[in-house]
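A reminder from the course coordinator: this example appears on the midterm review sheet, so study it carefully.

Given structure:
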């Protein structure tokens, strides 16, 4: 499948959608503290999205015969991705929580995620968050015109494994634009010099999912929540990136408010 190239108008709309997606994450981050439920974060996210005139790309998103029932994905500890917010899930001191927000605005989609500590976390978890976030940065730095998708994958895998963690293999990053998941697939493991060639005007969601233990995952009986097979903690960071002749540009940065 050929990788969509966005024109000027598409890029302008991507910028808007991504800026909104980023500001939603930015607004949720300070709410994370012991005692809050994942449903509280969901409701704040849902309301922030609406207040920006956008809509959640997650809500009603269909895989097979299932539709995703919430406006955000909130995954705690051993949950890798697609955690369904719940008023029964109370965040505790020492937890980590991954917030993945995807919004549609003006027909275009911005996708981004962060993992944040709840209260005080162990040094091991601190390292997990740092390594996953740095792996994302390294992956992004490989998203240059003339490189290949495998250059991104390889940079992420090499860095993560050098730190003794593992990358999830069954879920991948992806192109993003008018659809949440467009070509190309962007695995978080692989070999340099392989895969599609990067051209200007691609919008790519790069998203390492990193586990403390095994790279293996399973899906819970709710049909959505993906957890590590061994119950070890997992972190997830994601940005939507535009490829340009001047290098990769991260679109999912919150827009600076003008004074
Ligand atoms: N935001 C996710 C991604 O990074 C996908 C959301 S799945 C949904 O690709 F079911 F919540 F929609
Ligand atoms: Co996402
Ligand atoms: Co994504």
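Designed residues:
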């Amino acid at each position: 499948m050929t990788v969509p190239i966005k024109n000027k108008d598409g890029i302008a709309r991507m910028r808007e959608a991504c800026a909104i997606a980023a500001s939603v994450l930015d607004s949720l981050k300070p709410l994370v503290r012991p005692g809050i439920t994942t449903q509280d974060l969901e409701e704040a996210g849902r309301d922030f999205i609406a207040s920006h005139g956008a809509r959640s790309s997650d809500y009603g998103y269909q895989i097979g015969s299932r539709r995703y029932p919430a406006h955000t994905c909130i995954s705690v500890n051993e949950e890798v991705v697609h955690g369904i917010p719940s008023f029964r899930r109370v965040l505790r001191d020492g937890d980590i929580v991954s917030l993945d927000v995807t919004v549609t605005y003006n027909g275009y989609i911005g996708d981004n995620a962060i993992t944040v500590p709840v209260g005080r976390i162990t040094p091991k978890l601190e390292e997990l968050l740092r390594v996953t976030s740095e792996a994302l940065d390294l992956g992004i730095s490989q998203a240059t015109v003339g490189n290949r998708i495998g250059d991104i994958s390889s940079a992420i895998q090499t860095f993560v494994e050098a730190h003794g963690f593992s990358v999830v293999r069954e879920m991948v990053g992806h192109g993003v634009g008018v659809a949440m998941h467009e070509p190309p697939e962007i695995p978080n493991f692989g070999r340099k010099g392989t895969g599609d060639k990067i051209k200007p005007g691609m919008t790519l969601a790069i998203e390492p999912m990193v586990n403390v233990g095994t790279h293996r995952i399973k899906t819970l009986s709710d049909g959505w929540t993906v957890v590590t097979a061994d119950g070890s903690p997992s972190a997830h960071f994601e940005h939507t990136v535009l490829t340009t002749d001047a290098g990769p540009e991260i679109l999912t940065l919150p827009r600076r408010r003008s004074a």
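Residues 8-250 form a domain with the Creatine Amidinohydrolase fold (CATH 3.90.230.10). The two ends are 44 Å apart (CA to CA).
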